[in-house]
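Appendix B, record 7
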Amino acid sequence: MFEPVSSFIAFITHSSFFLVIIPVLFVTSGSIVFYHRRLYGIQLNEKEEQFRKEKKNLAEKVQSLSLIMENLGEPALYRNSRGIISWFNQELQHLWGYTGTKILGSTLEELFPSENEDIRRLVSQVQANGRTIVQERKLSDKNGDLRSFEITVRRIQEEEGYGMLILYKDVTYYREQMDILNDLYVSTREDLQQRSDYYADFLKSGLPPLNSILEKSEDLLGRRNMSDETVSTAAAIAESGRQLDSYVRNLSFLAFPDKTAALYEKSRLQVSETRSLEDWQSALVKRLEAYTLSTGHSTFVLLQGDVPEALNARFVLLNELLERLIENAEKFSRGGFYLLIKIYRAESGYFPINITVRNFGAVIEAEQRETIFKPFTRIIEKGDGPGLGLTVGRSLAEKLGGSLSCDPACSDGARFLVSLPPVKGEGTVISGNRLEGNRGASSVPILLQHRGDSELRRMVTQLKRAGFDVTTAESFEKSSSTAKVISSASLSSPGQTPDWSRLLDALISP
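Structure tokens (predicted):
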């Protein structure tokens, strides 16, 4: 009897539980959904606001870019990765007179059919290597006039493939100006060539008036029973003639270096000659003899290093170069001077040449050591020339493939350094030093401290062969008061062999 009632009560109890749970679950789920919907809405609004800002910024950038591209001042267009023109500026439209509808959506080949092949080649090159290409081409404008354009093709990365930005810079005016300048250059070059040929013919004539002055003055100087005044006048005329000859030669090399060099070397095809170094040294010593006789100061030429019997070099130009340095030393040295010619073996059969010309003239300050090589520069009051000798000397050194400079380490007088590239040597090579020179009338006996050094013994032998009165001793206690005393310590650094240049410096110092 009570069993149905119990079942009914149990049903009611369970139903009440579900009736309570279900609304709770419904409310809870609704709250969760509402919360997340509201959160998503806020995030969506933030993203939308961010999108609007970025869209606005992008629009501004696109507008700015469009303004920049429109204001390039030169025609420009953009060909996208599909080969279609998707952008152009007004300059392009004005240049070729096309309407916007014709340009947009067309291809380069359709716009410029006559330049089809050139355009395809340029675009292919840029697509292949990715590098911007700039080339000059001639294109016709809307009036059919042919104009010069500098075409720049640049690759632009797209989502799929590459686009091409192409700019056309009109360089017609500059090209016309360049053509005018080129015509002027050709005309000037031809005129200079004619003048150069005329000048060469003038030099070939041997300058008869100048030759006459030199010959007649030398003839007068050779006559006997002339008064001192006549001799002095003839000597002055001869010296003026020699100076004039030097001016003409310097101006010739300065104005027409190639033509003058070819003239002196006789032939453009045979500019080198093989010459015995012993003969060359003797000729240089002979050239310095006049200075020694007139001043009483000693002069030397020293061959040093790996000396072959002969060299194949452009001796005509090399002697012209040395002549400028010798003339400079003769003008400014207060004592003697010397040429030190160093020759070393660089490779099989070839020898570089380094030449030092040393004098005890006025000191050349550091800031003037480049100025002295400029044309018509005279930094020493004693100079009586136009200031071209060193300028021409450097020009000749460069023509020989070398250089000429003033040694910055020289603090007493001047030391000029000539560096020349290797030339071919011939015959037996002898390593060592070979000295020749002119002993001046004012030279005094030399007392050289000698302590058994083999290099010092060789120095003594060579000095005696050059005509010097040399005495050696282990000390200077019994030296003559008139002798020039040279200590072995002054000729070398501790632990080093005696230096020939130090010995020659001591011999020529005033």
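Remarks on this record: The domain at 271-436 is CATH 3.30.565.10 (Heat Shock Protein 90). The mean pLDDT is 78.
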